Amino acid sequence: MRERQGLDRATLHFRVAPFIAASLLEIGLLAWMVYLWVRILRQFDGPRPTYRGLLLVWRRSTLAKYLPGSVWSVAAAAETAEAHGGSATSLAASFVLQAILSVVGAVTVAAMFGAASFSWVSIAVLAAGVLIVHPAVITAALRTTRRVTRAPAVAWRGTWLDGLSLLVLHIITWSAFGVAFALFFSSLVPNTPALWSTLIGLNAFAFIAGFMAFFSPAGLGVRETALVVMLAPFLPELGTRVGLAAAGRLWLVFTEIAGGALIQLVVAPARRRAIVRDGGTAPERPQVIRGVSVEVFADSAKALPAIIAACRGAQHSIAIAQLAFDADCRPVGSPADADHGPLFETIAAAAKMIDVRVLLNGGLLLDTSLALRRALAAARADRHVRLRTIKAFPQMMHAKLVVVDEREAFLMGASFVNGYWDGALHLPREHPAAPPGAGDRPLHDVAVHLTGESGSHLARWFDDMWSRAKPEHGEAAACPLGPRLASPAPRAPRTHAANSVRLLRTTPRGYASARHGVTEILDAYLEAIDRARSFIYLESQYFSARPIARAVRHALDAHPELEVVLLLNQNPDITGYRTWQDARLAESKLLGHRRVGAFSLWSTADSFVRQQTVELTQVFIHSKVAVIDDEWATIGTANLDGASLHSYGDDFSSWLGQRIFGRFRNVDLNVELLDGALGEPSTGVVRTFRADLWNRHLGISADVGATRPAAGWLSLWRAAAAANVAALAAPRGRLAAGRILPYVPTGQPRDQLRALGIGLDAASLDLRFDPGPIEVHCSPGWTKRLLPERLRAGRAR
Question: Is residue 595 within 8 Å of residue 567, measured between CB atoms?
């Protein structure tokens, strides 16, 4: 009774300390609610902003809630998130689900703290909340929403346990909001801690009243009226209650403004790094370049002679960017190819007359510059060829590019090292016809030749990167350029003229002309996958990028006719990537999906070691290729991993790995072929390239691969894979239809074949690539290739 009498005589009196404590707690809880939003959003498919990105979304949606009608917050959140690279449908769905969880949490808190005991109301509300977060209920609600609104499909991937944990966290959060309100109450009206439990319940009830008043922006007036009524037993004086309720509204607005200001000061300057992933985005979209001739080499062995021929015909300049460059790298195959000689000899001779620059990866990983300098000195070309390195450990200069006379360019996945330029036969290492330098497995790669204005754009990119690399001791001075020679007779490649392309980059922070770096390649992938309606074809050395896996899954759920074909390495060559790749396939539930086919490349050949024996080996996929709907394709140097797209650390599962490597990414280049995509004219270049590539993989004729079968594209792949499994299971079996087998998420090749029903009869089938358990899990062999040349030479001595 003394407590109530004290409150009866209470008047509003401002105290600073409780007010500051209440404000800091309220702002922190607002930020915490955004984190809970992130937790909810993680259970939906599709690309999404990070926590920092969602803070920016929250800032705008908070202002929108003061417009009449509660839908404006949802609309503003969806619109802002979509502008920042997220999925509007997923953002809207997560926003609504969080609102429901907030209401359930607030009602539960109001019932718990508004009564002397845990009343039947709180039990009923909790039971409803437990039912609402069941996956079946959420999925049914999403389907209903889709039918009513005709919005794109969005899927909930969370479990019931995920939903229950989110519900509990919202209940705890609304209890904390009540504590903040009690602190604010204490800053104006003296009270005792015994009253706080009641104030916690009153705050939750006032929120519910304001939330349910759809006609009132942000519950303005309704929340305050509810507080005035509910505080009557404790503050009989009406003026005091009205003043306290009005001050409470001003306090809420103040904390929201203060929180928004903190976001503007702290987060907004880093918004380029906060959208969709821990990375940056280009300050402007890549330019569409039209009138480009495109020639695609589905086998890298055919690309190297073309590169050497173009360099031999150079009249003004040759610019080469490479991960590695060995002086003995030469084409193999036909006698005409052998006549070209090593690329090194061509550029060494050309440098005496024209400008030749070579930009290599340097530093602690894979530095071939010292060996190349020695070769240049031995050829007396060191005073003519200018050579620089990009040193940014653990990041790598991963782009592979040749630009000749700023008019034609070659983009390839392969380094200028023997063994990367394999032919179509993909013969095992010991075979007499195998190319020199072949590793444990034959290698498949793709290259593209561009002629036209794209050459000058790539030359400018090279100049930008060249200026980033500091001149090194002994670098040759620029050669005085003589008069431009007459143009040689043009070759007649298999090209498609008048194509539209975009040149895409990945660069780290501080590189090239973009301060925060660029992630144009990832942006283009996500945009193209989102547009996919018929099929998505991904052929990549690695498949560990979380944004790509999520985007593919979201596209599958959104479009019932869409098919996905993945061509991946069974055993990637770097430690960790096999685990990451299998984890991405499992997380996104792509393996086993009825409209997804995952495959790998294998090769068979008659053994030259053991008679009556067939050698079987994996073909290492080194290409970085994607084709979507025969309207869009990309070819280049970027793998589908964090290092090539946005953030090396994003591939890691551990928090420590993500923190240590989160800011790192490589330098990569891709070309984007727009064959009807983005409103550009159709030329058929993408369809022709895709059909040629699939013909090689599936062993089918060009006309079969050009047109989609009635049963879908996957029917071709599954039929070829089934035929190969049956053929290899037979005595002295060999691949019967191309080179594909189904992908098996198992480490050892023997186990992969056994899972397919293929036994290894020692008398007829010889598995040439057969790493043991240690090598499968640790892959110690790959470290030799990453050692700098000077260390490799020292180890050899």
Answer: no
Determine how β-strand 624-628 pairs with β-strand 620-621.
Answer: unpaired
Higher pLDDT, 569 or 509: 569
The first and second tokens of residue 17, run together, are 């300390």
What is the pLDDT, as a whole number, of residue 97? 82
Residues sharing a CB contact under 8 Å with residue 527, sequence separation 6 or more, in sequence order: none
Both tokens of 233, joined, read 């037993």
Q: Which two tokens stand for residue 615?
A: 């050698």
Q: How many CB atoms lie within 10 A of CB 197?
A: 16
Helices (H), 42-70: 51-64
Helix count and strand count (H, E) for the chain: 29, 20
Q: What is the pLDDT of residues 26-85, one digit of tens each?
A: 888 888 887 887 778 777 765 555 566 666 666 555 554 544 444 444 444 444 444 444
Specify burial of residue 409 (Cβ count, 10 A radius: 0-12, 13-18, 19+).
buried
Question: What is the pairing mode between strands 620-621 and 443-444?
Answer: parallel
Where are the extended beta strands (E) located within 154-257?
A: none
The pLDDT assigned to 386 comes to 93
Strand-pairing partners, residue 740, are: 601
Provide the 3-class DSSP secondary structure of residue 325.
strand
Dist CA 395 CA 643 (whole Å): 8
Residue 676 CA from chain centroid, whole number: 24
Residue 671 has pLDDT above 60, yes or no: yes
Q: Is it true that the peptide bond before 394 is cis, omega within 30 degrees of 0?
A: yes
Site of tokens 């009540």:
178
Query: Quick one: average pLDDT of 650-678?
Result: 88
Measure the CA dihedral 787/789/792/797, to 10°.
Answer: -160
Rounded-to-integer distance, Cα 352 and Cα 246, Å: 83
Phi, psi of 501 (to 5 degrees): -135, 160
Structure tokens at 747: 């480490």
User: CB 404: neighbour CB atoms within 10 A?
Assistant: 26
571, 771 contact by CB (below 8 A): yes
Please state, as a whole number, how many other Cβ atoms lie within 10 Å of the Cβ of residue 8.
12
CA 531 – CA 548 distance, rounded (Å): 14
Neighbours of 147 (CB within 10 A): 9
Give the pLDDT score at 607. Answer: 78
Six token digits for residue 564 = 């996905």
What does the pLDDT read at residue 485?
Answer: 40
Apex 89 CA angle, 85 and 92, nearest 5 = 100
Q: Is 222 helix (H, G, I), strand (E, B) or coil?
A: helix
Tokens (6 digits) for 179: 């504590």
Longest dimension (CA), the chain: 106
The lowest-confidence range among 365-369, 561-565, 678-682 is 365-369
Residue 544, pLDDT score: 95
Three-state secondary-structure class, residue 292: strand
pLDDT for position 546: 93
Mean pLDDT is lowest, of 126-140, 346-360, 455-469, 676-690, for 126-140
Identity at 418, one-letter amino acid code:
N
Predicted TM-score of the model (pTM): 0.68
**Which pLDDT does position 439 carry in this prediction?**
66
Question: Residue 30: what pLDDT?
Answer: 80
Question: Is beta strand 596-606 parallel, antiparallel or unpaired with respect to 563-567?
Answer: parallel
Q: Tell me the C-alpha distance between 143 and 136, whole Å.
A: 11
Cα distances (angstroms) measured from residue 206 to each of 70, 110, 219, 244: 16, 9, 9, 13
Show the DSSP H helices in 447-576 as ranges.
454-468, 520-531, 546-558
> Are the CB atoms for 151 and 93 separated by under 8 Å?
no
Give the residue-averaged pLDDT of 504-514: 77
Q: What is the DSSP string of 726-791?
A: HHHHSTT----STTEEE----SSHHHHHHHTT----TTTEEES----HHHHHH-TTHHHHHS-HHH
Categorize the per-residue pLDDT at 313 as very low, low, confident or very high, splitting at 50, 70 and 90.
Answer: very high
